[in-house]
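Supplementary Methods. Inverse-folding protocol.

Structures were first reduced to a discrete structure-token string of length 335. This string, shown here, constituted the complete conditioning input.
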């Protein structure tokens, strides 16, 4: 390692440690530093994410090594089985994401996770390799083919910070698929476990029940019916009642390919829901209006046909007066 490279690594390590320590304290200062640091370090995060992939993919994507011999050597150093397994896993992730997109009709921007929390004490967010230059907006849902990952909380030109649903200050309106009961899914800081707060404390809940997003106004950040997780345990607490444990549908510690949802277009006026009697009356009124419009159109057509027939009869009557325009005399003759 050259002296210049070693110095760069040391500087980056120092910056990372500083941000990690500040992040543990939280607050406005941390948010400001994180946003500024995201802009400055987003290219480095993208490179770091590429290095974490099989080296052959990194070589092809980044194009850092144009020497064919270097590429051949790197390829020969890869374990073929590992490369194949990772490729198959990514194909499966992409298929699952496409399936979710087709099922929900959402528009998503595919992205790869390039940065996880630097300490085990902070498992609230990850960074992906798309940003404002790619049209990513704040407070947009992030998902995989399995379910919800989180939402966007800050963007730089080429990266976006994602708050995970497992973050301690995360709360999502939700409902149980089996019963339709409304609830709130809350993060615990543990990426493998969340809790559910019931609106009805005596609601029917069973282990294995699926919990879906309730849906936000205009679909931001979350549209309805996205999987959040399944009930993994129901604990009894004399003071607080039941504690519902929820296992996230997505493995939040093994994120790779995700999709950032584009904000839905503003909705127009909604159609009204009518009772059967009112709907029948509305249908009858619409039919009467259509019949009246058709009658008016037929009357106009009949009038036009009668006028045309009258003009034809006048043209065939030898006693009808027809005004003939005077003709000019031939050239060279005096009238």
């Amino acid at each position: 390692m050259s002296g210049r490279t070693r110095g760069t690594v040391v500087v980056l390590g120092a910056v990372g440690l500083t941000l990690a320590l500040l992040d543990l304290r939280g607050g406005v200062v941390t948010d400001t530093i994180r946003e500024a640091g995201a802009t400055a370090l987003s290219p480095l995060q993208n490179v770091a994410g590429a290095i974490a992939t099989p080296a052959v993919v990194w070589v092809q994507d980044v194009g850092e090594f144009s020497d064919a011999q270097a590429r051949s050597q790197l390829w020969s150093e890869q374990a073929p089985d590992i490369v194949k397994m990772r490729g198959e896993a990514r194909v499966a992730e992409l298929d699952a994401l496409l399936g979710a997109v087709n099922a929900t009709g959402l528009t998503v921007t595919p992205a790869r996770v390039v940065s996880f929390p630097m300490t085990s004490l902070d498992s609230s967010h990850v960074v992906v390799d798309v940003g404002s230059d790619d049209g990513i907006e704040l407070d947009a849902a992030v998902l995989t083919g399995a379910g919800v990952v989180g939402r966007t909380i800050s963007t730089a030109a080429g990266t976006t910070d994602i708050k995970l649903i497992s973050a301690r200050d995360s709360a999502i309106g939700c409902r149980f698929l089996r019963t339709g009961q409304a609830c709130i899914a809350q993060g615990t800081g543990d990426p493998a476990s969340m809790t559910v707060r019931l609106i009805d404390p005596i609601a029917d809940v069973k282990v294995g029940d699926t919990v879906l997003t309730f849906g936000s106004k205009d679909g931001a950040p979350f549209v309805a019916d996205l999987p959040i997780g399944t009930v993994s345990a129901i604990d009894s607490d004399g003071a607080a009642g039941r504690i519902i444990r929820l296992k996230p549908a997505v493995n939040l510690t093994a994120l790779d390919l995700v999709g950032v949802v584009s904000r839905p277009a503003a909705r127009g006026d909604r159609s009204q829901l009518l009772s059967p009697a009112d709907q029948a009356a509305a249908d009858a009124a619409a039919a009467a209006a259509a019949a009246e419009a058709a009658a008016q159109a037929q009357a106009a057509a009949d009038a036009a046909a009668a006028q045309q027939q009258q003009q034809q009869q006048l043209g065939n009557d030898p006693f009808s007066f027809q005004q003939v325009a005077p003709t000019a005399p031939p050239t060279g003759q005096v009238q």
